[in-house]
Fold this sequence. Notes:
This protein has helices at 16-27, 39-51, 66-80, 103-128, 159-179, 197-209, 214-222, 233-244, and strands spanning 7-11, 31-36, 56-60, 85-88, 141-146, 184-191, 255-258. By secondary structure, it is of the alpha/beta class. The chain folds into 2 domains: 7-193 and 232-258, NAD(P)-binding Rossmann-like Domain (Rossmann fold), CATH 3.40.50.720; 195-230, no CATH class. The protein has a 7-stranded parallel sheet, sandwiched between helices. Its EC number is 1.1.1.304. The active site is at residue 161.
Amino acid sequence: MTTGKKVAIVTGAGQGIGLAIAVRLSREGFAIGCLDYNAETAEAAADAIIATGGEALAVKVDVAQRDDVFKAVDAVVQRFGRLDVIVNNAGLGPTTPIEEITPEIYHKVFDVNVGGTYWGIQAALKHFKARKPEKAGDIVGKIINASSQAGQVGNPDLAVYGATKFAIRGITQTAAKDLAPLGITSNAYCPGIVRTPMMEGIAQKVADENGQTLEWGLQQWAKNVTLGRISEPEDVAACVSFLAGPDSDYMTGQALIIDGGMVFN
């Protein structure tokens, strides 16, 4: 089945930021490939989009496995007939004090965060390159990668996660230069502290240790944000929507910070 819509693939679409991105891009008129390591949450995301009149396909994928990513991207293109945007959103964010980093943690986080970005780009390129720009400046495909506020500055206890997010900024810039002649842009988004299941779990632990509520726990992080609140996933999705849409066609190699005012460049 092919669609007349543009098509976007979102990795890690089963929950949190990825789910918000998938829903937002569906509202913007994209058919969505909902890729996630958890097949059930991928299906739930696709079902939610379809229930609101959108088009979506759920695909289980381990983004650390190159062949897995290629097969998943091919499945989405086979279903919808094209690919316009890939959002390499899936990632891991464990707390890793320097002295506690093990080879296993290092390899796992880099394989998912950095490897998943490489493989997502490569898998998308095959389909982007099937369309040729008619003239200089025409855009035939967009790569959007998940960096982080922690990819802009070093944060305590995030030596591994932060390193992967710094790496993704570098990959994004290099891809922008390498792929511009093909009509392909490459940009990144850098969220700060976002209300996701993972973040709520961390905040709840802090709250429990202090006999306080979840909201109190979240507020401890909000103190570091200029705008006075932590981000909702929809805040990040709005930034990605801009990067996926035509208003960002003359932008490439950039990493947009959407953190409420934690980092100023």
